[in-house]
Amino acid sequence: MFLKLIQFILIISIISTQGCKKKTTKTETYNSKNDFILGYSTGEYINEPYFTQQWHIEKNDIFYDLYDIDNEASIHANGMLSKYSGRNIAIAIIDNGADINHPDLKNAIFRTYNPEDQSTNVAHSENDEHHGTSVAGIIGARVNRHGICGIAYNSKLIIIKLNLNGMVSNLDIIDAFDYANQNGASVINNSWGTDDVDDAVADKIDDLALNGRNGKGMIIIFASGNDDKSLDDAGVNDESELPNVLGVGASQKDNLRAYYSNYGSKLDIVAPGGDNNLGIMTIDPINNKGLNSGNDDPYLYANSGNIFIGTSASAPVLSGAIAVILEVNPNLTREQLFDILKRTSDKIGDEGYQALGDGTSRNDYYGYGKINLKDAIDLAKTY
Amino acid sequence: MIKNRNQKIGIDSKIIVKFKDKISQEIVFERYGYEVVRQIGSKTFVLKMPNTNEAIEVANMLNESGVVMYAQPNIYRKAKMR
């Protein structure tokens, strides 16, 4: 009876996320030399109040049972984040800005830039915007006994704002990529796309992918989109299809391709992106803004209220995981990193994978499969 | 606004040009005296034209000349958060 009561209390504590009190005794500090001083040992990431809801990182029995999540649905961090957390890896997030004052984010911010006016102002333009904040949280939310744990919770975030609500110019996009490169980014996350990339932008992306990161090659990730369409369709020429970019699709809680996720011959990989029943737990802007504007809750839960789903969520899951892999082996070139991902990703789904001559295999719905962080780390150690 | 396929796009008076080689670049700059706003790659430049019509004309002319990898106006288009 006692055991049952404990289980009941645990379940209530998971479901009643809105009412959880978050005790904060100490936060990270950030000094003028841009050094990151950690408030907690990295091993405490599992104690973040909403970590249990972060089903995309690693399996936990209670939440998985409650929401009927496939045992293999996560990226299989499998405790690796107690040792690796993307420490000192700079990740640029090109998006519609971010709330850099969010308690889970403020100590993760390394640089901010707005190409449109060459300022450092990356605040969301409208009160109900949240996209870039939510993407940033998945990657770099700090372990601070607030909210959640980013996959790369000791990475350094470079927030670059584009006018993704209106029209964005090629030169602003190029400026964004140049800024990321010039400020030491190893990974650039793009949870957006145009379906019609212009030559000048493709050329810049290609140049950085080949020559950025001090010649090792920048890791550039683009979300493949949520239209359940083939990117091989006539007239589609998407950023995620560029040859030196990682195009990422979405998987959902049943460990299959998410119903909305775009596919095609250039898709590289998938990562959890959630579905209408279970999203990717992340953050929302503070001060009564963001998706939750009106109820002043700065979190987007996996299981209730407004949820965050899509390849926009899959991309930062992958970006965070790659930052962790680069911490393990920072000497990896872009090509070596891609090779590791191809060889270690889980071959999920019912579609067969076509064997390629180099010992890897892929199909058009999952690319080379779903990121498996534990296996990728293991291979990166010896690569 | 210009309709391109199914998308609305816009342009301004700048063009982005990538030359095939340094000689082509020098010849074009010497002959036409374009205003160079900045260099964004080893062979890639942003040029400023007096107006958007001229930006389109010069971009077309450079593409037809065969001395560039590409020349295009600074296109504005809708990007979609995903």
Task: Summarize the topology.
The complex is a heterodimer of chains A (383) and B (82).
Chain A: H1 2-15, E1 29-30, E2 36-37, H2 61-66, E3 90-95, E4 109-113, H3 131-140, E5 156-161, E6 167-169, H4 170-182, E7 187-190, E8 192-193, H5 199-211, E9 219-223, E10 246-251, E11 269-272, E12 282-283, E13 299-300, H6 311-328, H7 334-344, E14 354-355, E15 361-362, H8 373-382
Parallel strand pairs in A: 3-5, 3-7, 4-5, 7-9, 9-10, 10-11
Antiparallel strand pairs in A: 1-2, 12-13, 14-15
Chain B: E1 2-4, E2 7-19, H1 22-32, E3 35-41, E4 44-48, H2 52-65, E5 68-78, E6 80-81
Antiparallel strand pairs in B: 1-2, 2-4, 2-5, 3-4
The count of strands of chain B amounts to 6
Ends distance of chain A: 51 Å
Q: Largest interface, and how many residues on either side?
A: A-B, 34 and 26 residues
Order of helical and strand elements of chain B = EEHEEHEE
Q: Please identify the structural class of chain B as seen in this structure.
A: alpha+beta
Largest sheet of chain B: 5 strands, antiparallel
Please state the CA-atom Rg of chain A, rounded to the nearest Å.
19 Å
Give me the oligomer status.
heterodimer
What about the largest sheet of chain A? 7 strands, parallel
Provide the low-confidence segments of chain B as ranges.
Answer: none
Separation of termini of chain B?
Answer: 24 Å
User: Residue-averaged pLDDT of chain A, rounded?
Assistant: 90
Please give the share of residues in helix of chain B. Answer: 25-40%
Gyration radius of chain B, to the nearest Å? 13 Å
Structural features, described:
The complex is a heterodimer of chains A (about 375) and B (about 80). Chain A is α/β, with parallel strands linked by helices. Chain A contains eight helices and 15 strands. Chain B is α+β, with helices and mostly antiparallel strands and about 80 residues long. Chains A and B meet through strand 6, helix 4, strand 8, helix 5 and helix 6 of A and strand 2, strand 5 and strand 6 of B. Strand 8 (about 190-195) of chain A pairs antiparallel with strand 6 (about 80) of chain B, so a sheet runs across the interface.
